[in-house]
Amino acid sequence: MEIMVFFSLLLLVCSVSTNQTEADNEILDHQILSQQPCPHDINAVLREMAVSMAGQKVRITFLEKENQDQAAKLESQKTEIERQKTETEQLKLLSKEQAAKLETEIDQLKLQSEEQEAMLESQKTETDQLKQELQDKKVAFSASLLDQDHTDTGPFNTETPLIFKHAIINIGNAYNLSTGIFTAPVRGVYHFGCKVYGHESIQTGGLLFKNGEKMFLIHEHQKTAGGVSAYNGVSLLLEVGDEMSVRLWPKSMVCDSKNHHTTFSGHLVFTM
Ligand SMILES: *[C@@H]1O[C@H](CO)[C@@H](O)[C@H](O)[C@H]1NC(C)=O
Which GO terms describe its cellular component (predicted)? Predict the structure, then answer.
């Protein structure tokens, strides 16, 4: 009998939904009581109490189970929050890393553009230098002694500088018209030529000097009257700043006119 009641009670409790209310519980109690004949002895009271206790126990078990479920749910929510927090942290870290990476990349690009600018600047300087060098390589001059009516120069007892005052060309301005000195602007092989013209029965002659040192003689001597010429051409390796000039050979004479008989010429053949 007791077992039967307990099972029917259990069935009733199990059929009750989780949203059970206080009112539902009262109905349940009433049902339990109504299934029992009204007790008149102590045994009946005890049975009733046992039934009631069993009912309470089932409810407690049910509540405990619900509690456990909610705790588990809470735990899983906590885990989820924790997971999301971790994810957020990771994203933050990642975005920080990306920002740092970007900054580094920008710095590198800046450096690169600075380097390219410097390279461009140095290339410009190099180009300018090459232009200048090319300009320096254009060296040529030709000058006659005078540009006036027939005039004799000499004779003198000593070597006398000849200043060829009438330039036909003077590219690179390496030849100085007021001193008669050619100064090498670059290291290289140069070619020089000097022609002297004389007349009467007196010798004509010139001397080509390099830095005050005698290099070549241009000379002619005839015993009879009349015009006479001499020429000498040389190639020389000159260093920057080397000076070339012509002097009148002692006791000789040169003459020049608007016809340009007596000349001094030179040009750069190639640099070295
Ligand atoms: C020629 O030489 C003189 C004297 O050394 C100098 O004063 C002058 O500037 C020079 N001229 C040129 C064109 O170099």
Answer: extracellular region
